[in-house]
Records
---
Amino acid sequence: MIENIRLSFQGVWSHKMRSFLTMLGIIIGIASIISIVSTIQGTNEQIKRNLIGSGNNTVSIKLSQGEYDYEIAYNGIPNGVPVISESTRQEILALDEVENVALYTSRTYADGVFYQNTALQGANIYGIDANYFDTAGYIVRTGRQFIDSDYTEFRKVAIVDDVAATALFQDANPLGKTIEINQEPFIVVGVAQQSEQFEPVINSIEDYYMYTTESSGTVYIPSASWCIVYQYDEPQNVLVKAVSTEDMSAAGSKTADILNTYVSADNSDIQYRAADVLETARNLQELSNATNNQLIWIASISLLVGGIGVMNIMLVSVTERTSEIGLKKAIGAKKRRILGQFLTEAAVLTSLGGVIGVGVGIGLSEAINRISGTPIAISVPAAVGSVIFSMMIGIIFGLLPSIKAANLNPIDALRHE
Amino acid sequence: MILKMEHIYKDYIQGKMIVPVLKDINLEVEEGEYVAIMGPSGSGKSTLMNIIGCLDKPTKGTFLLDGQRVLEQKDNQVASVRLRSIGFVFQNFQLLPRLSALDNVALPLIYAGIKKRERRKRAKLALERVGLGDRLNFVPNQLSGGQKQRVAIARAMVNNPKILLADEPTGALDSKSSHQVMELFEELNHEGVTVIMITHDANVAKCAKRIVDIFDGEISERSRKEEAV
C-alpha cells in the first residue's frame, strides 16, 4: 500500500504537466468551495461578534409585555411583579452558566437631565446596584465608582458615560459638577466607559441599521437613590454575564425562568424575557447561509467536471500502460493488486489536487478579504473535509479505469506495444 | 511429471471462421528437463507457450501443471500458480522502465507478500546470481540488451519457481549476449530448474536437451539428447 502510494507520487511527478492539468478541475472546485465556506464562516463570525460585542458575554433580561419591553414610565408598576431581592440575585448567580448578575432600573428617552442650561436629549437613566459595571464590562475612567455609603446614605451622586459627559460639559472636567435629574441635583463623581472598546464592522447599510447603537448619553445613579427621582418598588431588569459566549442563551433563559416564578400568574403577558443575541445571530446567519449554500452546489459542479477529467486521464493511462499491466498479471499479480494500484493513483492525484485546492482557496479568501473587506474565517474541518472528499472523487472516478485495468487479458496486454 | 498436456485444442474465431491453431497436442515434460519448442511464425508456438504459462486457456483438452488442474481454477488461483511455479522471460524483456533493476526483480516478491527488507535481500542475491551485482540501482535504460535480459531472468527466478518459461529469449540480443543468456539457462537447468524455451532459431534450440517441433499446430518430437552417462 505504502509502496503503491510512493509509486503513485513518482508517477504524478514524472508527468508533471499532465498531472497538473488533470488536477486543475479538482483544484478549482476545492478552491472555490474553500473560499465560499471561508466567506460564509467569516460573515457568520462577524454577525455574532457584532451582536455580542467584544467577548463581554452579557445578556439583559427585561420585563416585557407581549413582544415589547414593559415601559414603567407609561404603564406604571405592574401588578404581581415583585422587586427582585438579593436572595433571588444569589439564586441566579448560582447558575452554572452565570458569572455575574446585576440589577438595575432604567428610563430611556428621558428628558429632565440638565447641566445649567444644557439638556441631555433622549437620555438613558440607570439606577444600578454595585455589581452593574463589572457585569456590563464598564470601567470608571476618571473619578470613582459608587461606594457602599452612596447606597446606605441615599447620596445623590451620578456617573456619566463619555457621550453624556461630552454633551453636557463639552471639554470641561465633569467631576464635581452638579447636574439635574428630574429637578433633583446630583453630583457627578465619575465618568464610565466600556472596558473594551468595540466597534462593529459595518459593510453595508443593512449592517449599519443592525449594529449601530448610537446612544444619546447615559447617566448612572445608585439604585438606592432611584426613588428620589422616580418611585419606590420598581421591579428591576437583570443583566447577566455568561461564563462563555456559548452559554449566553442558556444563562438568559434560565435567569428568565427563575424570575418568572416570582411573577404572579394573572399577569401572564407580563414576563421576564432574555434578549437572546445568539438566536438573533443564528437567524441572520441562516439568511446569509441560504444564499451561499447554493454557491457551494455550483462549485461542486466543477468538482464533478474535475472528476470526469481524472477518469479520462486514468483511462488513457491504463491504455498507455497496458503492457505493464500484462507483465504484472503474468508474473502473478492478482486482480485486486492492479485494481488497488490504479485506485491509489487516482486517489493520490485527486488528494494532491485537493491539498493544492485548499491552499489556493485560502489564498483566494485572503485576497477577497483584502480587496472587498469581506470577513473570512478559514475552517479547518472544511479544509480536511475537502481533501477527504477529493480523495473520494479519485476513488469513485478511478473505479471504472481501474476495473478496466484489472480485467485486462494478460496475453493481449503483453502483446500490446 | 511437471507438465502434462493431453489432447489440447485451441481455436480462434475470426469473424464467422473458426481457425484451429493447436490440434491435438500431447506433451509431457519431466521435472528438470530442458525443452525447446521450435517452429516458424504462425505455427502456434506462442499460443502453446501462453497455455503452458497459464495465460490462456485451450478450447478443450486436459492440462496439469505442477500437479494442479489449472484449467479448472479461478483467475486468482491461476495468478498464484504463475507467481509460484513459473518464471517468465520475454523476447522484449518487459522490464518496468521507471523501476531500478533491483525493484524490477523484487516485483514478484511484492505479490508473494514478502516484507521489504527480505525482498531487497533476495532480489540482490538474484541479481548477483546473473552477474549484475554492480547494477542494482540502474534503470532499464541504463542497461544493455543482454543486461536487461539477465535482469528479467533474475526476476523470473527470484521466487524459485520450478519452471522457467522463455519466449524467444534471445530474439532481441546480439550473439555474445545470446550466448551468455543460454549459458545462464544451462546453469539453471543444471541446478534442477525445468526450462521450456520457445524459439524459431535452430542454433538456440540446439542448446536444449530436447527439441519439440511445432508446425501448423501439430507437434512432433525431433530428438532427445541422452543424458551423459
Note: Chain B has a mean pLDDT of 89.
---
Amino acid sequence: MDFFNSHVLTLTTFLPLLTAVAIMFTPNLAISRWVAMGGSAVTFLFSLHVWYYFDAQTPGLQFVEEYSWIPSFGIKYIMGVDGLNLLLFILTTFLTPLILLSVWHIEGSKQKAFLSLFMFLECGMLGSLVAFDMVFFYIFWEAMLIPMYFMIGIWGGKNRIDATTKFIIYTVVGSLFMLAAAIVLYLLHYQKTGTYSTNILDLYTTAPLYETQLWLFGAFALAFAIKVPLFPFHTWLPDAHTEAPTAGSVILAGVLLKLGTYGLLRFAIPLFPEAVATYAPIIVSLGVIGIIYGALTAWMQKDAKKLVAYSSVSHLGFVVIGSFALVAGGNQISVEALTGAVYQMINHGISTGALFFLVGIIYERRHTRMLADFGGLAKVMPWFAFMLIIATLSSVGLPGTGGFVGEFLILLGTFQSSPIAGITASLGVLLGAVYMLHLCRKILFGPLDKKENQELQDLSPREFAYLTPLAILAVLMGIYPNLFLDKIRPSVEHLAQNYKQYRLVAAEQPAKDIENVASSEQSAESAGE
Amino acid sequence: MNFSFPTVTLDFYISALPVLILCLGAISAMLQSVFKKVGSETAVFGLQIVILIGALLAALLAPNSVETAYLSGNYLTGLITQFGQVTLLVIAIIISILFKDTWLKAKFFRGEISSLYQMVISGMLVMVSSEDLITLFVGLELSSIGLYALLGYTDPTRKSQEGAIKYFVLGSFATALLMFGFGLLYSATGTMRLSEIVELVPKMADHNWVQLGALFAMVGLGFKLALAPFHLWAPDAYEAAPTGITALMATSVKVMIILVAMRIFGGGLSSIYEVWMPALMFLAVISMIAGNVMALVQNSLKRMLAYSSIAHSGYMAVAICAIGNLGGEFPYAAVLYYLIGYAIISIGSFGILMWLENDQNDNITLDNLSGMASKHPKACFALAVFMFAFAGMPPTVGFISKFFVFNAALKANLVSLVVIGIIGSSISLYYYLRVIVRMFMSEPVKVAAPLAPKNSVIVSLVVGVAVILVVLLGTVLPGPVMDHLISTSLEIARN
C-alpha cells in the first residue's frame, strides 16, 4: 500500500499509455474494447484513491513523486496534485470510460486505432495535469496534440483536414513561444540562484524584472489563451469541434480546453505576479468580449454542434475573468472568483460534455445537426429530452445545478474587481439562457412535422449508461457544492495568498535590491552583444 | 615548419586502424573489377560490410582516454574523434545494408562503387580526426570526390548525371573557397595546426587576414552543409542521387562538417568570434527561413527532405553560434545530441523511402503516399513518427534536441535566432504534417506506377530500431546520453 500511495500518480498517468500499447496488440475489436474499458476503469479507480486520500486541509502538493531525469540540465520527473488540478484529474479519468462507452457500437477496421489513440490522449492529459516540472509538463502538453490531431483528421467530418491542421498549428505556435519563455525563465533562475532547475515550485521564486515579466507572461499567456481559447484566438475551436467525431468533441470541450485555463492558474499567474496586474484589465476585457461574442454567435448558429462549440467560447470566458479578478487595487486576487473559476472548469466539462454527447446521439440517428431539421423530439424521445434539459439547465447556470455555483462565485468576485466587467458578464449569463433555450426549443418542442423525426428511437440502455452519471453529477454539483469546493479552496487561498504576499514584498522592497538584479541582467545582456 | 619525416609509432597505427582498414578494403574492392571472375555477385558486398564492421570495432576499441595528436596534429585520437568515427561508421553500415539491392543492380561497376564508398567513408573519418588544415582538406576532397562519383555512377539506369554535375561544379567551387580560406589562415599565422592557431590569433596585432580566411572557410563549409544561400545544389543533388546516397549525404556529410566546424570555429577561431558569428547567424537565419518555406511547395519527398535538411543545418548553425559566444561544454553537447537525433530520423525516413521505391518509380511523391495507411499501416506509423520528430514534437528526440539547441542559444543571448527558429519550426510543421495527412487522412490517388513494396526483414529491423530510438531519446534516455555527450565535449570545450 505504501508503494501504491507513493506511486499512484505515475500509475494513473501511465496506465492509459500501457492500455494504448496493449490495444495495438489485441487480435480483434471486441477484445480491444474490453481492454480499453478495463484500462480506463482501473485508471478511474486509481484516481478515486487519490480523491479519497487527498487531504483537503493541505494547500500544498500531495502524492509527490520526484526523480532525476536529465540531471545535467536540472530537469526532473515531478508529479503532484493539489486543489487546482485534483478535480480536473478526476474529471479526465471519469469522462474517458464514458466516452469509450459512447463509441462502443462503432465498427470498422480503424476503430482499434481510435481506441488506442484515445488512451494515448488520456495519458497526455493526465500527465500535463500532474506534471510539476516545466519540461516534463511541456512534453505531455504537446504530445497530447498528436492523438487529437489524428482523431479529428481521420474520423472527422468533411473539412476535417483543414480543421485539424489549423488546430495543431495554432496550438503549437503558441506553445513554442511558451517554450522559449520557459527557457529564459530557467536561465534567469540559474542567474539568481546558481542552480539549474525546471521545477515549477523553484521557478515560482524567480520573480524576474518587471519588463522581463511582461514579455514572459505574454508568451505564456499566448499559449494558454490559444488553448482556452480566449477571444480573438478562438477561431480554431468551432472548426475543430464541428469536424471532430463526438468522442473527440467531448474530450476537447471536457478537458483539453480546461488545460488552457489550468495553465493560466498554474503557470502564468504565480510565475509572473507583477505582469498579472498589468495584463489583467486586457485579459478580463478579452474574456468579457469572448463571453458576449461567443453567446451572440452561438445564438445565430444553425448547426447544433457549432452552437455548443461557441457556447464553450462564452463559458470559458467566465473562467478566464474569474482567474483574473483582481481586487484591492490589483494587490489581491479575489478568492471567490478564483474558486468559482476552478469549479466552473469542472462544471463546464460535465455540462458541455453531455451536450456534445446529446448532439452526437441525434446526429447518429438523423445524420444532420441542423436545428431546422428537428422539432418536437420531446414527443418521441422523452428521455433524450430529459437529459438535454438537465444539461441545458446546468449550462445556463440554473440554481440547483453546478453552473449556478460556478458562475455565481465568478460574478461575485468580478463585481468586486470591476463592476463594469461584472455587469457585462452578467449579460452573458442572460444571453446564455437565450441561446441554450433556443437550442432546446428548436430540437425538443414545436410541432413534430418532419416524417423522419417521427420514428426516432429514444435513448438505448448504453446511451443511458453514459449520460446518467453526467446528469447526476451536474445536479450533485449544484446541491452539494462543498463536496468539491472543500478540496479546491485551500489551494486557491494559497495561490491568492502568495500573490498578495508577493505584491506586498514588491511594494516595500527597497529599490536598491531591484537595481542590483537589473544591473546584473544588463551586464549579461551586454556581454552577449 | 618542420619538413623532416615524422616518426611513426605503433600507437599511431593502432589508433589510425579504422582508416587503414577502410583503405585496405577500398583497394581490394577495386581489384574485383580487374579480376572480374574472382569476385562473385555478393562477395564484394560482403567484404564491404566486413570491412566496415572491422573499422567500427577498431574505432570503438581505439585508445581514447586522452586527446593525443600524432604526426604533428595530422591525426588525433580522443573522445570527439571517437564519437565522430563511430557515428559515421554506424551510419555507413546501416546505409550499405539498406542500399544492397540498388547497389547490386549496378552489375558492371560493383567493385568500383564499393571501393568508392569505402574511400568516401575513410575520407570522412580523416576529416573528423584531424586538426591540421591540409589533412582536413585532403579528407574533405577524398570524401567529396567519391560522393560526386557515387552520385552519378551508382545506378546507370537513372538520370542522376545532371545532379552529379551540379553537385560537382558547386562542390569544387566550395572546396576552392575553403582552400583559399585555409591558405589565408596559414599565411597570416604561419601554422596549419588549429591548436597553434588558437594560441597565435589573440596575440596578433592585426588579424585582418585571419578574419578573411575565417569567412572563406565558413563559406566553403556552408556550401558543404547546404546552408542557405549556398544551398542551391542540395535539392537537385538529393533528388538525382539514388536514395541510399541521398541518405549518406543527408546524414554523414552533416556529421562530418559539423564536427569540423566545431573544431575550426569553436576551437581554432574562437577568439575572433565577433567576426564570424554575425556571418554565421545570417546563414542560420536564411537557412531556417528559406529551407522551411521552400519545403512547403515540394511534392517530391526527397526534395522536401532536402529543403528540410537545409533548415536543420540552420538549427545546428544556431548552436555553433552559441558555441562561439558562450564556450563551455553545453552547446557542444547540444549540437552532438542534435546530430544523433537528426541522423536517426533521417536514416529511418530514407529507409522507408528506399523500401517503397522500385525500378519504375524511384522518386516518391506525396501522391504516391496518399491513402497508404490502409495498405501499410506499420510503415506509415513509422514515417509519421519520423515526421513528428523532424517537426520537433514531443515525445520524440526532435523536441529534446531542439530544446537543447534553443537552451544553448538563449544562454548565449541569441534571442532573435531563437525567435526565427520558432517561426521556422511552426512553418515546418505544415509540410511535415502534410505527409501524415496524405498517408492517413486522404483517399488513394491514381498514379502511373503504383508502389508494391515487398516485406523486408532488414528494413523492418532498421526502421523499427529507429522508431524506438527516436522515442526513447525523447523520453527516457536524454539524461544518460546527455551526460555522456557533456563529458565528451569537455575535451574540446574552451572555458
Note: Chain B is about 75% helix and 0% strand.
